[in-house]
Each structure stands twice: as structure tokens, then as C-alpha cells.
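Record 1 of the preview.
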Amino acid sequence: MAKRSHSGGPSGSHRTLRIGEAIRRRLSELLSRGEIHDPDLTAMSITVGEVSVSADLRVATAFVLPLGGKDAETALLALRKNRGEIRHHVGKALGIKHTPELRFALDDTFDRMDATRRMFADERVQRDINKDDTPETDEEE
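->
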């Protein structure tokens, strides 16, 4: 799995973040409009959550997830198979000298959020949270 930087963090320059967002928007348009000529891609709805661009602008990793999380591996295979056509469309839209190499990875944001919710719902964690919220009383004699 590709390492993921958080948008707006110290690891991303304004330019890499801007280009990543432009790629994300164009990828979303391509996939939602069915502009890529592949029946596997046109048959599914794919969300592009984030695009992380390397500091040298050579590689862009798109974090994607099919609607409902079903057929994720099929979606990745189809995207990887069509990366040349996708890169061509993205390059035309970006208008920069060199279009980054496109890589695709599954977006695990929702899985991580679910795991966090489960952790906070655990009775032991709730007990610790509530214990921290209980005001301490000073006993004076």
C-alpha cells in the first residue's frame, strides 16, 4: 500500500496539493462520465478520495474506492490496465509539461474511520473516557 500524506500537512507543497486536487477532479469526471473505454470501469461507480503527488511531481497516487466497497480489486485492475488512456486525458486537462505517472491504491479512509468508531464504542475505552471526565473532588478535613 502506498504511503499517504494528509492534504495540507507539512509534507505537501502548495503546488503538489493543487496538482493532486486537479488530478482528483479530472479522474472523478472521467470515471463518472464513462469517458474511459472499458466496460469494467463504465459498469461501476468509483470514488476518487484523494490524489497524493510526489514532491518531484513524477508520481501521482490516486486513492479510489468503488461504491459500497464491492469489487475493489476488479476496479484497481481496470484502472491499472487503462492507466495510459487515463494519463493522456489527465495530461490534457492539466496543461503541464510532464504528466505524473498514475498509480492507483484502495482508499482505506472509511475502514479506518469504522475501526476508530469501534474502538471508541468499546466499554473499556468508554470507561476510561468517562473516568477522565469525572471531576475530582478535594477532600478537606
